[in-house]
Specification:
The chain contains seven helices and ten strands. With 240 residues, the protein is of the alpha+beta class. The strands form two sheets. The chain has a five-stranded antiparallel beta sheet with strand order 1-10-9-6-7. A hairpin with a 2-residue loop joins strand 4 and strand 5 (105-111). The radius of gyration is 17 Å and the shape is globular.
């Protein structure tokens, strides 16, 4: 199966520093978005350390599988904790969403609230569930999606890479035939652009994945750009 992927990261309009990082390894069919924890010292460094560790561990020859990804995430988490100890940066960490393809399936790992969306002619849905206080309340049915948008604790994470030494991701899968497009993103996109608008942009005919990824970032900025925005859009051949 052939794919075409485009990745872009932008500081947004409200933040002086971009604490997001991304990884695009098309030859390995590995892609990742990391969002350094906002408000914590070293967020930019944490996301960069995570992506560098993943590239080092997964960019080499050999099959990519869930065990190898978890080993890479452990190395990333250890690197972040080492940096935090040396710099005395309490709470240094990052969210992360990673996808790799084996055969006819995408395997998606995530820690925190960076997301993966599946987009096709039938609609758009989040493949991942946020590891956040609000995400847990939503999963229990304690609050509605509308209440989640303005919840006072919507930025409180329950899991992050490096911050507490817990590197264990949650895993999900989707068939490549179902995922005409796979979208990985940080919260700077989905907090500003609703899923229906994402779908409209991604399914617009006559545009490349690079152009569509850029349009998603531009749309988030048109709506205020309140956070860093990172997008990786992966299209299967024939879904361009």
């Amino acid at each position: 199966m052939a794919f075409r992927a485009a990745g872009i990261t932008d500081a947004g309009l409200a933040r002086k520093e971009n604490q997001d990082s991304l990884l695009v390894l098309p030859q390995r069919m590995v892609y990742a978005v990391a969002d350094g924890m906002g408000g914590h010292a070293g967020g930019r460094q944490a996301s960069a350390i995570a992506v560098e560790a993943l590239e080092r561990e997964l960019g080499r020859d050999g099959a990519v599988d869930e065990a190898r990804v978890e080993k890479a995430l452990a190395a990333a988490g250890a690197g972040i904790l080492k940096e935090a100890k040396e710099k005395r940066w309490d709470g240094m960490g990052t969210t992360l969403v990673l996808a790799f393809c084996v055969g006819s399936r995408w395997h998606v790992a995530h820690i925190g609230d960076s997301r993966a969306y599946v987009i096709n002619s039938g609609g758009v849905y989040a493949l991942t569930r946020d590891h956040s206080l609000v995400g847990e309340l939503l999963a229990r049915g304690s609050i509605t999606p509308e209440e989640a948008k303005t919840h006072p604790h919507r930025n409180v994470l329950t899991r992050a890479l490096g911050a507490d030494g817990d590197y264990r991701p949650e895993w999900n899968e989707v068939g490549v035939e179902e995922a005409e497009y796979l979208l990985l993103c940080s919260d700077g996109l989905y907090n500003m652009v609703e899923p229906e608008k994402m779908r409209d942009v991604v399914l617009a005919p006559g545009r490349t994945p690079e152009e569509k990824a850029g349009e998603l970032v531009e749309e988030a900025n048109r709506r205020g750009g309140l956070d860093n925005i990172t997008v990786i859009l992966i299209a299967k051949e024939g879904g361009l």
